[in-house]
Amino acid sequence: MKVASNELVAGFSIGALLLAAMGLFGVVASAVARRQHEIAVRLALGAERRRVLRMVVGEGAALVALGCVVAVPGIYIAGRAMRGVLVGISPFDPLTLVGVALGLAIVALAACYVPARRAGLIDPARALRGE
């Protein structure tokens, strides 16, 4: 069975996107677990659950923005190396780069939403007792 190179690249791209989403989910979930007492204090002092949700998702979005800024030099280095592999598209196509960045941002925000929602559901009394 012969696999076209575009299908192979698409498969690796989807795999990389899933790995990035799982990694970001793990980092944000770990941060929420470490900061459970802080979040409980915020909730006990009257912070709205929506504000806690925005705080956690905002921190995840900051990680994604930092990753995109750090990745810009890597795009040009990898683009020169992959120029011969890509058929019909330039590695520096702005529409493709913006589409990939937006797709990554959407998947990353979805990966951050689950731990953020869990942070908003923390029971302050139970978390502060240490249970």
Helix tally equals 5
Number of domains: 1
Category by helix and strand content: mainly alpha
The percentage of residues in β strands lies in under 5%
Arithmetic mean pLDDT: 84
**Tell me about the biggest sheet?**
none
The Cα radius of gyration reads: 19 Å
Helices and strands, in N-to-C order? HHHHH
| Total number of strands | 0
- Indicate the percent of residues in helices: over 70%
How would the global form be characterised? elongated
Rounded to the nearest angstrom, the distance between the terminal CA atoms is 55 Å
Uncertain segments are: none
Description:
- This protein is mainly α.
- Helix 1 (5-34) packs parallel to helix 4 (94-120) and helix 3 runs antiparallel to helix 4.
- It contains five helices and no strands.
- Helices cover 81% and strands 0% of the residues.
- The mean pLDDT is 84.
- 15% of the residues are buried.
- The protein has one domain.
Descriptive keywords:
131 residues; mainly alpha; 5 helices; elongated
Give a summary of the structure in a few sentences.
With 131 residues, this protein is mainly alpha-helical. It has five helices and no strands.
Write the layout of secondary structure elements.
Blueprint lengths: L4 H30 L1 H9 L4 H34 L11 H27 L3 H6 L2
Helix pairs in contact: 1-4, 3-4
